Amino acid sequence: MNNRQLFLSHLAQTTDFPLLIEVEKAEGIHLFGPNGEKYIDLISGIGVSNVGHRHPKVLAAIQSQLDKYLHLMVYGEYVQTPQTQLAKALCDTLPDSLDNVYLVNSGSEAVEGALKLAKRFTGRREMISCVNAYHGSSHGSLSAGGNELFKRAYRPLLPGISHIHYGHLADLEKINRQTAAVILETIQGEAGIRVADREYFQALRRRCDETGTLLILDEIQAGFGRTGKFWAFEHFDIVPDILLCAKGMGGGMPIGAFIANKEVMGVFKNNPLLGHITTFGGHPVSAAASLATVQILQEEQLISQVEAKAALFKSLLVHPKIKGIRNKGLMMAVEFGSFEVLKPIIDRAIELGVITDWFLFCDDSMRIAPPLIITEEQIHDACQAILRAIDEA
Ligand code: PMP
């Protein structure tokens, strides 16, 4: 059996439409197939490869850690330099009130930890999240998700979570003194890139303060420079009580975090109530890669170029079949009106050497989220291929 056949017969399938792209190697913004194929990666493993694939400094950090130790013990027992240095580097990117980092394995686990933390800290049981939110696939994070179709088969889910409409000021009244936390994506990703305005975020922050509710911002997709700021909440002049990150954080390695202040995080310390335990969370190799990723984003001025690169995409992607483009920095959705129109375009673009896809809850729009290191010339090449794919699909 060849690799595609093995994939189809022995790997669990997660979609009716697998792209089935074979990859032998990845470097920078490119993926390379076994028969000389070369693709421009415009999705970055869904917002993961922000510094590009196999960035030399990420590889060097991993190599150096491989020579020291791999796993030692459940997170939080030994003093591990990659973890302490990473926590400090993350806190240095954040306002003073976010000074305590809990390292985990993934985005979903960061969500789980944050929901538990909010219950413990407030003593409240109710939560609010948003319609069309995506927070992960585990039971707790799925419960916070806002797409009925995805949740239906798994009920009963976590009780006590109600949903408001992202960006709707009037809905903020539903946050009250029983609400432990509001969790929302700063920029809604899988809903197809929806961006609320500054007024909304200001009002949300005020309402949480008035009711003693913790504000949890999920920047698992929007963080790490993707939107043109290190953290997406910086666009709106607010600070969350708990911040979630993963994906782009590891520079291609699995790692996530929920970040709060010492007082909030401190409740996890109180024995005999179990806080959050994770065997592999903050794995030293991932933590070393993540520390290098933070440094690369800062040293290579990748974030300050995001806005201009996004503007270039928008100026080039003009075609009668494109109904509009929604974006915050290089988190972009190109709207085609239906999956029937979009899917053949994505397939043809892959044949032409450009990889894009669609969103979990928005299948009429093309996802564009390239590595932030993409150059102007590469943006021109990618857009030319997409326009050709539109004409030839
Ligand atoms: N939150 C958001 C906003 C996400 O985009 C994702 C992943 N698409 C998650 C949470 C879940 O992250 P993970 O797949 O690492 O569990």
TrEMBL record:
This protein's UniProt keywords: Aminotransferase, Pyridoxal phosphate, Transferase
Requisite cofactors: pyridoxal 5'-phosphate
CDD domains given in the database record: OAT_like (cd00610)
Entry superkingdom: Bacteria
Gene3D superfamilies registered for this protein in UniProt: Aspartate Aminotransferase, domain 1 (3.90.1150.10), Type I PLP-dependent aspartate aminotransferase-like (Major domain) (3.40.640.10)
Keyword presence, Ribosomal protein: no
One Gene Ontology term of the molecular function aspect: transaminase activity
Family affiliation: Belongs to the class-III pyridoxal-phosphate-dependent aminotransferase family.
Name of this protein: Aspartate aminotransferase family protein
Lineage: Bacteria, Pseudomonadati, Bacteroidota, Cytophagia, Cytophagales
